[in-house]
Design brief:
By secondary structure, this protein is of the alpha/beta class. The chain is about 50% helix and about 10% strand. Strand 2, helix 2 and strand 3 form a beta-alpha-beta unit. Bound molecules: nicotinamide-adenine-dinucleotide. Nicotinamide-adenine-dinucleotide binds next to helix 4, strand 6, helix 5 and helix 9.
């Protein structure tokens, strides 16, 4: 069979090195000839931000960020950027902080340097998201793609172990979902499979020793692979489910991914044999579901949506919200009842025999 595909590579500089972020930032600010830098970091991230920015001129520091980028926060940040004539945004933090910088870039075109402190991966995508009245709107625009990413694993050492694991599984979900996402192609699938392999090893190492810098480096590297795969392949079934759950029920992003992933894999894998074989190998197991289940148990992954505020009585309505956004590319037909079964399993944390249902 001939090989035909259409793959876009996003233009972006990636600088990677533990303990190097301050030097990288100084060099990038210089390279971009920026003179009015706006630093976006939460109060918690401010300690890192102060340390990283000692060698650059900062026009303004902005701390007012919240999960899922509420539209009011976006408007305030845009006003601060305009009032201070900012010519470069530097975001230091997790996906919510990167997301706020993207909201400013979306309307102003100001370039972003992203310095991530979790494994969420927003820094490597051209996707923005803004929440208004509990509804999260997302879109794609190259203006929001950070011009440079600075990865420094020392910044992730402060992650509480549970959050580090959940965030790493969020990254693994980008990889796994990319295998059957709408724009899956040989390049993003290769990134996804390698990302899965790297993240499986790194998650195990971080769980064994949350202070191991080399394990966090591997997590960040895997997170970058995962984000480039996801950015290119688009949202598959797993991301559609988590997007609805996060937006409609205000569930924590990384933990939601962690709890839902095994059930999507159990549902899809029997209908996607090529992806199943590659995932099994990446997880060093005889089957994708067994490999993932073993990893999740090994790292004590968050696995019950009930622990994060999702209620049993929400399941039916959530299934109704998800069904219309299921990608047509999904390898297995998804019915309302399938979503009820899948969400019930994710709610209670039970391992259900979804893979034995008829495809
Ligand atoms: P987050 O940014 O909300 O951070 C979670 C918590 O971790 C916060 O309290 C934060 O202060 C804390 N934190 C961050 N770094 C830390 C560190 N090094 N040490 C200790 N605490 C730290 O959550 P997230 O999971 O990083 O990002 C989730 C958000 O990113 C969601 O809104 C999601 O939709 C978005 N996202 C967007 C894309 C995209 O392509 N646009 C991709 C992935 C995620």
């Amino acid at each position: 069979m001939s090989l035909v595909f259409d793959h876009t590579v996003l233009p972006q500089r990636v600088l990677f090195g533990s303990g190097r972020a301050a030097d990288f930032l100084e060099a990038e600010v210089d390279r971009l000839n920026a003179h009015r830098v706006m630093i976006i970091a939460s109060e918690r991230e401010n300690v890192s931000a102060q340390h990283l920015s000692t060698n650059i001129d900062v026009a303004v520091r902005h701390h007012d960020r919240a999960p899922h980028v509420p539209v009011e926060n976006a408007k305030r940040a845009r006003a601060v950027a305009a009032d201070n004539d900012a010519d470069l945004l530097v975001s230091i933090g997790g996906g919510s902080t990167t997301g706020l910088a993207k909201a400013v870039a979306l309307t102003t075109g100001i370039p972003i340097i992203a310095i991530p402190t979790t494994y969420a991966g927003s820094e490597a995508t051209n996707v923005w998201g803004i929440t208004e009245a509990h509804l999260k709107t997302t879109g794609v625009d190259n203006k929001v793609l950070p011009v440079s990413i600075i990865y420094d694993a020392e910044l992730t050492l402060t992650l509480p172990p549970g959050l580090a694991i959940a965030s790493g599984l969020n990254a693994m979900a980008h990889c796994i979902d990319s295998l059957w996402a709408p724009r899956a192609d040989p390049i993003n699938q290769a990134l996804a499979v390698e990302g899965t392999r790297i993240l499986a090893e790194a998650l195990t190492a971080v769980a064994a020793d949350p202070n191991a810098l080399s394990a966090h480096e591997q997590m960040l590297y895997g997170a970058y692979l995962s984000a480039t795969a996801f950015s290119s392949a688009g949202s598959g079934l797993h991301h559609k489910i988590c997007h609805v759950l996060g937006g409609a029920y205000n569930l924590p992003h990384a933990h939601t991914h962690s709890a839902v992933l095994r059930h999507v894999v159990a549902f899809n894998a029997p209908a996607a044999p090529a992806a199943e074989t590659r995932l099994a190998a990446a997880l060093a197991s005889g089957s994708a579901t067994a490999g993932l289940d073993s990893l999740l148990d090994r790292v004590n992954a968050p696995h019950r949506l009930a622990d994060y505020g999702f209620r049993e009585e929400d399941i039916s309505a959530a299934a109704g919200l998800i069904l219309p956004v299921v990608p047509v590319s999904n390898p297995r037909r998804v019915r309302h009842d399938d979503l009820i079964t899948l969400l019930s399993a994710a709610y209670s944390g039970e391992t259900t025999p979804l893979e034995r249902n008829s495809a």
